[in-house]
Amino acid sequence: MISKLFIQNFAIIDEISIEFHAGLNIITGETGAGKSILIGALSLLLGARADIASLKLKDKKCIVEGIFTQDELPVLSQFLKNNELDVEPELVVRREISASGKSRGFINDTPVSLQQLRELAVLLVDLHQQFDTLQIGDTKFQRVVVDTLANNQEAVLEYQQIFKQWKNTQIQLRELQSKKADADKELDYLQFQLSELSEANFTADELENADIELQTLTHAEEIKRVLNELNFVLKDGEEPIGQTLKSLQNKLRNFSEINASIGDLAGRLESVQIELEDVAQEAESIADQTNLDEERIDFLNERISLGYKLQKKHNAASTNELIAIQKDLESRVQQFEQISGDEQALETTLKTLHKSLGEKAKVLTVNRKKIIPTTEKEIDTLLTQVGMPNAKIKIELDPLTDWNEYGQEQVNFLFDANKSGKFELVSKVASGGELSRLMLSIKSLVAKYVQLPTLIFDEIDTGISGEAAKQVGVIMKALGKNIQVISITHQPQIAAKADAHYFVFKKESEKGINTGIRLLSENDRIKAIAQMIGGENPSEFALANAKELMAD
C-alpha cells in the first residue's frame, strides 16, 4: 500500500504531503481544486510521460515521491532482486523533472529507467480513471479476468512456454525448408561432380607419378639400351672400366708405404671403383625392369587424360587439389543431406509440441468454462447491488482458427442492460456510467481471489447517484477490508463509507493559487458530506442526512 505521497512544484501545487491509511481512502473537494492533479502526479511517479508544462514554477524542478509498504509481496521482492535494487520494508519511489525538462526516476534512491518505473507501477497501483472504462472492452483484459478467477496463472505460463517453443520451431522449420528448396537445386549438380571424382578415385600425387611412369614406358627401349651400354662399359667390355680401376688401385698400393699420398689416392680410387660397381648393378636392375608395356601405357594415358580433364573443370593444378575438392564436395553434399534429417527432426518435434500444446490449451479451456457460470452470476448480483437490476453479463469463449499465446479461444464479455435477451459486446452497448459500475463489480470480484495492489479510482462514480452510489460505496468499503483503496468522488454516499476522508481545497496567496489537502476529523467529515448533499451552507437536514449515511 502507499503510505505517503509528497508532491512539489506540480501544476497548481506548491508542496503537499499526504499520509494515506489502510482501507478506503476518499478524496473530495470542489471542482478545480486539484483532486485529479493528485492522480496526475501519482501517474508521473509511476512512469507516465513527463511534460515541462506541468511545472508550477518553470525555474524549479518538480518532485513526486511515494513511500510504499511492501506487505511481503513475493512478486515485488522478485522485481527488486531482478533489477538489483535494495529490498527493504519501505519502498521509496521518486520522480524528478528538471526545469530543462529532463526526467529522472529513483527506486530506493537508486536511479532507474522509465521502463523500470512502469514495470514497478503495475505491482504497486491499479489506477482506474474516468476513461479507463474502455479497458473493460479489451479482450485481453477480459481474458485476464477470467484466467484470474479460474486460477489459470500457472497453467497460462506453462502453455506459453510450450507455445513459444512451438512458434520458434515453426520458424526454424520454415527457414530450413526454404534453405532445403535452394539446396535441392544445387544438390544434383554437386552430386554429379562428386560422382565423377569418386569414380576417378585418385590417390595422392597419382597424376604426377603416372606422368613420370608414362614417360619412362614411352622411352623404354632407348632407356634400356643406354642402361645396358652403361653396364657393358662398366663390367663386360673388352676393357671394363671397373676392372681397369681395380688393377690401377692394386698397383698404387705397392707404393703406399713409400708415399702416404699415393696410399690416399689408392683409397679414393677404391671408393670410386665400389661406387661404379653399384652403378652397374643398379643400371642392370633398372634395365631388367624396364620393358615396353602397351597396356600399361594405355591405362596411364587414360588416367592422365581423365585427370587433366577434371583438373581443368575444377581449376585444379594437381592431383592433391582434386582430392581436396572431392572432400569439400563430400562435406557439402553431407550438409545438404543433413538438412533433410534436420527437417524430419523438426517435424517430429513440432508434432510433439503440437500435441502438448493441445493438452495445455484444453486445460485452460476447461478451467475457463468451469468458472463462467459462477462468474456471470456473481457479476450480475453485483450489478444489481450498484443499481443495475436489469443488467446481465455473458462470457463467451470464441474458438480461434489458430492458437494464440493464451490458448485456443478468445474471451468476450457480452452485455445486456435491459433484460432484452440481446447480448452484444460490452464496448458497443454499455454507457459510461454502466461501464464504471461494471468495472467496479469485476475488480471487486477479482479482489476476492487474488491480492491486488492499491486500487485507485478517479471519479469511477460518474453517471450514478442515489441508491446506486450508496451500493458502490458499500462495495468499495468491502474492498477496503482486504486492500488499500483510494477514490476521488463527488458522491456523498461513497464519501460516507471512508476509513480516511481527505479534502482538497484551493487557497490564494501572494504567489497565486495553490492546492492544499487535509485529513478530515469526524465533525469535518459530517460537514463536508453535508455540503456535498446541500451546498456550501448545508441545512440541518443535510447534516442529519450526512450523519445517517456515515452511520449506515
Detailed description of the structure:
- The protein has 552 residues and is an alpha/beta fold.
- Among the domains are: 1-129 and 459-520, 3-Layer(aba) Sandwich (Rossmann fold); 206-317.
- 57% of the residues lie in helices and 18% in strands.
- It has 17 helices and 15 strands.
- It has helices spanning 35-45, 74-82, 114-124, 139-149, 153-200, 206-218, 220-236, 241-253, 260-289, 294-314, 319-385, 426-429, 432-446, 466-479, 492-495, 522-534, 540-551; strands at residues 2-10, 13-19, 24-29, 62-69, 90-97, 103-107, 110-112, 125-128, 392-404, 407-416, 424-425, 454-458, 485-488, 500-509, 512-519.
- It has a six-stranded antiparallel sheet with strand order 2-1-4-5-6-7, with helices on one face.
- Helix 14 links the parallel strand 12 and strand 13.
- Helix 11 crosses helix 13 (432-446).
- The longest helix has 67 residues, at 319-385.
- How is the CATH topology of the domain at 1-129 and 459-520 named? Rossmann fold
* Percent in helix: 55-70%
From the N-terminal CA to the C-terminal CA, the straight-line distance is 26 Å
Overall 3D shape: elongated
- Mind telling me the C-alpha Rg? 49 Å
Give the spatial strand order of the biggest sheet.
2-1-4-5-6-7
Number of helices: 17
Biggest sheet statistics: 6 strands, antiparallel
In terms of structural class, how would the helical and strand content be classed?
alpha/beta
Poorly predicted segments: 129-134
**Total strand count, please?**
15
Strand content: 15-25%
Mean pLDDT: 83
- CATH classification, class level of the domain at 1-129 and 459-520: Alpha Beta
Which architecture of the domain at 1-129 and 459-520 does the CATH hierarchy give at level 2? 3-Layer(aba) Sandwich
The CATH superfamily of the domain at 1-129 and 459-520 is identified as: P-loop containing nucleotide triphosphate hydrolases
